Amino acid sequence: xxxxxxRYLRHAMAxxxxxxxxxxxxFSHAAPYAAMVMDARNGEVxxxxxxxxxxxxxxxxxxxxxYVAFEAIKHGEVSLDTQFTVSRNATQTSCVCLGLRPGQxxxxxxxIRAAALRSANDASVVIAExxxxxxxxxxxxxxxxxxxxGMANTTFRNPHGLTQTxxxxxxxxxxxxxxxxxxxxxxxxxxxSRRSDFAGVGNVPNTNRRxxxxxxxxxxxxxxxxxAAGFNLTASAKRGGKHIISTMFGGSSAVARNAHVAxxxxxxxxxxxxxxxxxxxxTPAYQGRAAVAVAQAPxxxxxxxxxxxxxxxxxxxxxxxxxxxxxxPVKAPDDAILLAVRESVDAAVSDVAAIAEAExxxxxxxxxxxxxxxxxxxxxxxxxxPDLAQTDDPEEVSLNAAIAAGFSIxxxxxxxxLGSFDGPPHDESAATADLATEPAPEEAVQVAExxxxxxxxxxxxxxxxxxxxxxxxxxxxxxxxxxxxxxxxITWIGASESLLAEAEGDDALLQSAEExxxxxxxxxxxxxxAGSGIILTxxxxxxxxxxxxxALAAAIDANLDSTATNAPEVIARLSTSDGGRLWGVSxxxxxxxxxxxxxxxxxxxxxxxxxxxxxxxxRQTSGRFEATVAGLTQTEAERACLRLSARSMDCNIxxx
Length: 656
What we know:
Elements: H1 2-28, E1 34-39, E2 44-49, H2 61-74, E3 83-85, H3 88-91, E4 105-107, H4 108-118, H5 121-132, H6 135-149, H7 171-184, H8 186-189, E5 196-198, E6 203-205, H9 209-214, E7 218-226, E8 230-239, E9 242-251, H10 254-271, E10 292-296, E11 312-316, H11 335-365, H12 367-378, H13 394-404, H14 412-419, H15 428-437, H16 442-451, H17 455-474, E12 488-493, H18 497-505, H19 507-520, E13 535-540, H20 549-560, E14 583-590, H21 593-606, H22 608-611, E15 615-621, E16 624-632, H23 634-646, E17 652-654
Antiparallel strand pairs: 1-2, 1-9, 3-4, 5-6, 7-8, 8-9, 10-11, 12-13, 14-16, 14-17, 15-16
Helix pairs in contact: 2-5, 4-5, 5-6, 11-12, 14-20, 16-18, 17-19, 18-19
């Protein structure tokens, strides 16, 4: 009995010793703790604990792996679509992997997602070998980049962070690296905040998604874990204009790590100033392939130097001086082109010299003599003026000017023939019948001769008439129907026989003749132009509407018998007789001038084809404003009113 008790006691004591050993071993292997909190806006340290102690960074190493990959993309070494080949060395990497196969090709963008989110070690090795050719060369580049960034206590031996001798970093350096990623590559920083993403072989989750979901404002960045390092995390968050980055090493579990990092972030937001000027860190010097190549010489262990250290050889491959490229030969222009340019330049210089000489002559001889010399100096010969006889009689001067311009005076017999005419020749068939039955006088013979003229001469006369009308319109002649008086009427004297004969048989030609009369009346007091064929005078009439041929004949006789004191007077007004542009359209009466103007603009824009030749007028009567368009032919007025009525607009045809 006692023996059994002693045996039981020995077993119990052994068990207690074993449990105590396990507990002591567990405490002895606990990862050391380190932490740091920084204001990302200006790099100010808010909280730190063991922040410069060199510890195992675990998968926080992949932040530098991704930074070097972003740097290689920026400098054109690779692109996001570059295809990397998976090596056997990458597939043999332990711990978390993406599941790649040897010989498989995968683009860099998927490898970046796998390393940032899934923390895949094999993806990190493929990135290292694809950019630098080997893991060792890539790790050396990572270390050089860390030194250029200010991470003085960090040394990398691999791209994934698995525990390896000499692979160490600090909480301060990892916080600096997280801030550098944010400022140098903001276009890629959003990868760290994604909950999951497609990585080429499937969707991969983010190992930091629990902290991103639990802490308000969190936007990254990377977790890490190994047995030697513990649970590590570098986190980033923004609130109310503040941006805090914190790093923790040595957590006992993922839950404890996230909770403690949340406390560190709260400390940062509580202590950080509200308004801080953002000062981005400087981008480190580029450490790519062409920057510095490092070669390790073998250690000499001979008797001559048993303690000799390794020798580092640095080869500067960058070009110090860049030569300026030689310009490409340019073909000289042809001699013909050079000669043409030279001649044009000489001509321009000659013109400038001639103008300068003319100005100098003007200063010396005065204005009167320059007026005489100017045509010769400029090479311009003015047309000769008609040689008119010098006389003091105004009537004789006018008649001489008319004869010099190509006009003639009607004979009394012609005037008598006009007196036998009963009305205007509007009926073409009747005019044709009269010509067929009555014997042809001298004027009829001339009409027959004119009808035998070529079509080219007729087209020339029509073109001159159209140009005359356009010139009159450009000079601002308006058809003011309201200002005509009943005391005067425009008549014609000595119209050319061919024009009168054709006018008697053609309504359109008669209208063109009247338009030519309007053109001749533009310049008051001036002699008629050569070739116009019409002389205008003013003759008192009892009524403006009495425009029969008998009245015209009487007016011509009275005008011929007038004395020198009653000289012919050119009238710049339109006749109120039938035909010509004596018609208009009324658009109605409006309560304001603005409304009338608006109506005129709207109508003329809508009917530019039919009203384009008309003159817009606004007349005020009894407090109301009437909008009219005058200066139209009867056909234009009727057509305009028909089209406006079809648009449900008011329109009335007016005729004086």
